Amino acid sequence: MSDKGFGVPCDECGTILREFRDALQRDEKELKDRLHQTANASGRAPDEMRLMWVSSVANAPTDEMHAIIRAQYPRIADLRQKQAEHESRAGHSVFRDGWQTMNMPYEELLKVMRVLSSIR
Ligand SMILES: [Zn+2]
After folding, report:
1. CA 16 to ligand 1 centroid distance, Å
2. What's the gap in Å between 1 CA and the centre of ligand 1?
3. How close is the Cα of 36 to the center of ligand 1, in Å?
4. Cα gap 50→115, rounded to integer Å
5. What is the pLDDT of residues 80-116, one digit of tens each?
6. Whole-angstrom distance, CA of residue 6 vs CA of residue 13
7. Which range, 33-37, 66-70, 99-103, 116-120, has the best average confidence (pLDDT)?
8. Structure pTM?
9. pLDDT class for 19, splitting at 50, 70, 90?
10. CA of 92 relative to ligand 1 center, distance in Å
11. Long-range contacts: 83-90, Cβ < 8 Å, 24+?
């Protein structure tokens, strides 16, 4: 089972990938909780609050938008650093070599990649 096309299963890649997924889930939950609290405090529905947040982000200038999104995912920057270090040292690709190792469902991998690509 050494098909190069599917990368090399690597435990460290798998660990970093799992940390990415967990960090995204925690950060998203915190954002949701925060919006929920703000909604309660201001007497708005959580959905309304979420829409307001999304449209304020969407209407911000591009630089500011990236900064806002980055701020919502405080754990990602450290992990990116870790990813870059491992990838340059081992010559791996965390996404290619990690998801097989940890048996992550493909949809979950896509979601992580989608969020990461929106954070600059
Ligand atoms: Zn690796």
Report:
1. 9
2. 17
3. 38
4. 17
5. 999 999 999 999 999 988 987 888 888 888 888 888 8
6. 14
7. 33-37
8. 0.77
9. very high
10. 5
11. 83/16, 83/20, 86/12, 86/13, 86/16, 90/10, 90/12, 90/13
- Measure the CA dihedral 71/77/79/83, to 10°: 140
Under 8 Å between Cβ of 119 and 69: yes
- Separation of CA 93 and ligand 1 centre (Å): 7
Measured in angstroms, how far is the CA atom of residue 91 from the centroid of ligand 1?
Answer: 7
Among 90, 69, 94, smallest CA distance to 79 is for 94
Cβ-contact 98, 10 below 8 angstroms: yes
